[in-house]
Design goal:
By secondary structure, this protein is an alpha+beta fold. Helices cover 36% and strands 22% of the residues.
């Protein structure tokens, strides 16, 4: 395969001395793209957002049109160019990109099939077949990841089996990161934190693995150039500059995985800090300083951090947000008065219910609908246990939140059993808006919880990487001092340590019983 360009890792610009430098952080998410413009002191100068849809042509299939993602990026770049103060110019930009999705493309980088997103489950039967054949341990050992139906590794294998016509036309397999990097600069480049989730990277060597590639019928030539997160990819193409209004000499810095960029922005560089992303799905992420799989909990995946010589470990805990949505719909909404409530009113009513119950919900336990996260091959089902006639809706509401908190405690215990420090738990997402849930998490886990109230952590981390790439900061500590955002820390109630320890053991016994 020809035409691959090396990354421009030593390209520097001479800024206009009459203008101040600005750096742009891009958050390329699953359903929207955000652009946040910062000055070098970390102040926001502008913000833009554009959404795009998901497509579900068949049950379990979740696709996306890559061109819609590209058009959304063009739109936010135009908006930011229009918002840039006359006193500033955009010196560099970087992407915090959703990973785990794959775009089959031709030699020129144009898609030949829709993007198969990380939400797609069409490969479930293939993944189960590979597990039965004993393939998973080797994939895990080489890539650091267990087999997951939504990731590019099985998606490419599925295309090879079920769409050989598409597989034959695909001369490249791209993630969102390198697809957009090529559209912006003409270069096919991807950082290691985004590339690793394709499950085709040797987690120890930091290079594409010929063995993993061969398992799904490709070679490293089908993939983009690998490099570090703060590498300069190159200046914007002339037509991109004309279309967006950004300076032609603005440099694209590679950026990285959106979760890793968010961790960087929160100051998660060294082991001890743990992040809990709380949306429909809850994902926990920690930091380690070596890629030793034996030194991390067996349920966790290993990835590169955007910080040199650091790796992230993460695990999908479950669809905990769906448990709360069920409670809102089936219990809170049905309570008198019977008229429909707005979402704000539903959450307010739910919070009021929680406040009426007491810690440990008077012995009522709840296993989330997605099942216990720390038990291999656990059933994806849950429910209440110990329900008595004297229990109330308030007890049920609190038990739902405590059940999720028990799952978090279980995961933190697994980290500590591997001698990995857990000094503080960062909380981001919808749970931060509850007046009770963060404190319940702190009390159940007996761990300080930091509420990350800022809305643009991935873009903030990407902006830091953009600044690092062009030498705007001496090191990561220098950048973090400038871009630091305030956090409210909740300390655990030590008086609840013993009651929650007993309740947690009851929860674990229940989880094992319903396995």
């Amino acid at each position: 395969m020809t035409g691959r360009l090396p990354p421009a890792t030593h390209c520097f610009i001479v800024p206009n001395p009459m203008l101040l430098d600005a750096i742009l952080g891009l958050d390329i998410g699953t359903t929207s793209t955000k652009a946040i413009l910062f000055d070098l002191a970390g102040r926001e100068l502008g913000a833009a957002q554009e959404t795009y849809p998901l497509q579900t042509p068949h049950p379990g299939w979740v696709e996306q049109d890559p061109e819609e993602v590209w058009r959304a990026l063009q739109k936010v770049l135009r908006d930011i160019a229009g918002q840039t103060p006359r006193t500033h110019r955009v010196r560099a930009l970087a992407m915090a990109a959703q990973s785990g999705s794959v775009i089959p493309a031709n030699e020129q980088g144009d898609p030949v099939y829709p993007m198969i997103t990380w939400l797609d489950t069409r490969t479930e039967s293939l993944v189960e077949q590979w597990k039965r054949e004993g393939l998973e341990p080797e994939v895990r050992e080489l890539s650091g990841w267990w087999l997951h139906p939504g990731l590019p590794f099985p998606a490419i294998g599925w295309l090879r089996q079920h769409r050989p016509d598409v597989f034959a036309r695909a001369r490249r397999f791209l993630s969102v990161h390198d697809f957009l990097a090529h559209r912006l600069t003409g270069r096919f480049f991807i950082d290691r934190s985004c590339a690793a989730e394709m499950q085709l990277v040797d987690i120890r060597r930091g290079e594409w693995s010929p063995r993993l590639c061969a398992m799904v019928g490709v070679t490293p030539d089908h993939l983009s150039t690998l490099g570090p997160a703060a590498a300069i990819i190159g200046p914007l193409l002339d037509d991109v500059s004309r279309e967006t209004g950004l300076p032609a000499d603005a440099l694209l810095v590679s950026g990285g995985h959106d979760q890793c960029c968010a961790a960087l922005a929160m100051g998660m560089i060294d082991p001890g800090e743990v992040k809990l992303a709380c949306g429909t799905a809850w994902v926990i992420t920690g930091i380690v300083d070596n890629p030793d799989l034996a030194a991390i909990p067996p349920s966790m995946d290993l990835n590169f951090h955007v910080v040199p010589d650091r790796w992230t470990i993460s695990q999908l805990l479950g669809g905990f947000g769906a448990s709360v949505e069920w409670m809102l719909r089936e219990v809170v909404q049905s309570r008198p008065p019977a008229q429909p409530l707005t979402r704000e009113e539903l959450f307010a009513a739910f919070d009021a219910l929680v406040s009426e119950s007491e810690p440990t919900a008077r012995g009522l336990l709840f296993v989330p609908h997605s099942g216990p996260s720390q038990l291999a091959n656990a059933s994806a089902q849950g429910g209440f246990w110990g329900l008595r006639l004297d229990h109330t809706c308030a007890d049920m509401a609190r038990a739902v939140l405590e059940g999720v908190a028990f799952e978090v405690r279980w995961t933190l215990n697994a980290l500590r059993e591997k001698r990995l420090p857990v000094e503080r738990l960062w909380l981001v997402g919808g749970a931060t808006r509850s007046p009770h849930w963060p404190q319940i998490l702190a009390d159940v886990a007996q761990t300080p919880v930091a509420l990350a109230g800022y809305a643009h952590w991935p873009a903030l981390g990407a902006a830091i990487l953009a600044g690092m790439g062009v030498g705007a900061f001496d090191d990561f500590s220098h950048a973090l001092n400038r871009f630091k955002r305030p956090a409210h820390v909740l300390e655990p109630n030590r008086q609840l340590s013993s009651p929650y320890a007993e309740a947690f053991e009851n929860y674990r016994r229940l989880a094992n019983a319903i396995l």
